[in-house]
Amino acid sequence: MPPAEDTTNFDVIVIGAGLTGIIAAQRLLQGHPETRLAILERDYCVGGVWSERRIYPSFWTQWTIGIAEFSDMPMERPPAEDCMHDLFRAKYTSKYLEDYVRNMSHAGQTLRDRIQFNTQVESIRKVNGQWQLLCVDTISKSQRSMLSSRLMIANGQSSVPNMPKFPGKEHFQGKIIHSIDFGQSDVIQDKSIQHVAVVGAGKSAADMVYEAVKAGKTVSWIIRKTGNGSLGAAALAPIDLPTPYRNGVEASQARIMASLQPCYLIPYRSWWTWLLHSTNLGAKVVSKIFSLLDNSVRKYAGYRERKSDKGFEKLEYDNEIIWQNGTAGGCHFADFWPLVAEKVYVHRGDVKLLSGNELYLNDENGTHFPCDAVLCGTGWECGLDMFDNSTLMELGLPYPKDIEPQEETARWEKLVGKADEQILRRFVMLRNPPKHYHKYETRTPYRLYHTMAPVHDDSILFMNHVVAGAKLFAAEAQAIWAVAYWDKAFPLPSVAERENDIAHMIAWNKRRYLSNGELGNFAPFDSVPYVDRLFDEIGVTSHRKKGWLGNMFAPIMPADLGKVWHEYLARRTKG
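^ thats the sequence. predicted structure below, dont judge the formating
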């Protein structure tokens, strides 16, 4: 009789069964089917942000058909009534990811078989060269310890809800719900809930406002005033902005469009990038292009043109979209702005008090109104609390600045300062940022190579901790790079060279994305050059074999990632 399989000791543990963890596990098992691999998921279903638990009717994708898939399993086009300018209801991504983990199998186990659901990782530390994980079952509350030689942290940026601490909430008789739980709540269907307050500026807040208004609720939208930690209202762009491509998402996948961005990830070796970003004329052209885009977004919303007696004009965002100094997203519904202007009460301030069924604001008018439910689109906390500060420091993860040794602070300030000088020499546009409120970060930035790999520990990788616009695209590219990295299939730069590269990422982020760049991992417009950089380092070329015109103008699609992956596997087999 064969010995029972050890369910607590693994070669690789992947934390998170969202799209990032799923594709990371799949590529690793394709490359090494014998790997003892487990996926830990705190929820009861796969998908993370796209899980069936977090879906609600107005949740639509911000990626399009043809882009929203992995290279080894095409996604079937949803019905026409569930598509809009090639975007589609998020429930189809949920189904796609569920189908994916059921269909992909290695060594007699599907990906789904390897997922341990309802498993919360409480702590991670290294013991005798192995990673020790203390886990808690979210249902039974029982604890268990697990060991792994390697880890992939794939819990992403949207796993731990940031819940405001509302004064008086213990005396509030209504419901308080974060967007993570909105899809499972009955707040929209409950007829006893008539007065709804939505707190937050971003896309999830806008979705909840829309659903509540469409359900006939009286809705108040509360956004903190710009300043004191708040970056103000969101920029919500129409999803049908004209481009030379089939849609805006495909346009963003083309190198010609990516080249318009002042991005240090793009190699500094062509006359085109020099002209656009290193000359005053080019910088003016780029600025003009994005100013036209910004004007289109503001005109579509009609912040100052629409008639409203409810404070609609307070929703106008501060800085041009190109700078991404606040939150942004797509506006999917043609009736969104007209409905908000007509029916939604907009307030800029903080919640001062909840009491009974009343909400009080701290504004100059002492505003208060009936409230049966508070819906929080208030974002997410850092998902790294399973590591103690010393481990965060050792790995190059964000940790409180006030505990960093002075010599380490000085060392990185010198590295980043030198990189900043080079960034400013290259990018004219970044020398003159707009006047803006700057939200400073209390933690150190990410100091990971390619935002994934610690400089001094090759046994752990942080997958999709970069904030990229094309999530599936970036996740699959990172998964391919991760396999090659652990295979030692390419020579790594020296420690000094990697630290210099990290310093460039940090310096560029702060100049390019202002407040959002404080952590050094923000790249919403830069997925294509980021992915190019990963593949160029591995030494594969399949993503650059469309001829000069095709390489520059054709969108990079999931099939191109598949070609890269097969090229890598074939090269490894030969070598």
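Residues 6 and 326 are 47 Å apart (CA to CA).
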